Amino acid sequence: MIGLTGVSRTFTGRSGSTVALQNIDLHVGEGEFVAVVGRSGCGKSTLLRLIAGLLPVSEGEITVGGEPVTGARRDVAMLFQRPALLPWRSVLDNVLLPVEIAGGRGAGQRARAHRLLETAGLGGFEKHRPHELSGGMQQRVSLCRSLIGEPRVLLMDEPFSALDALTRAELAAELQRLHMENSVTVVFVTHSIDEAVLLADRVVVLSPRPGRIREVVGIGIPRPRTPGRTAYLGEAARYSAGLHELLMERDMSAPTAGEGL
Question: For an engineered disulfide with 43, which of 26, 92, 153, 211 has Cβ 3.0 to 4.6 Å away?
Answer without folding.
Answer: 211
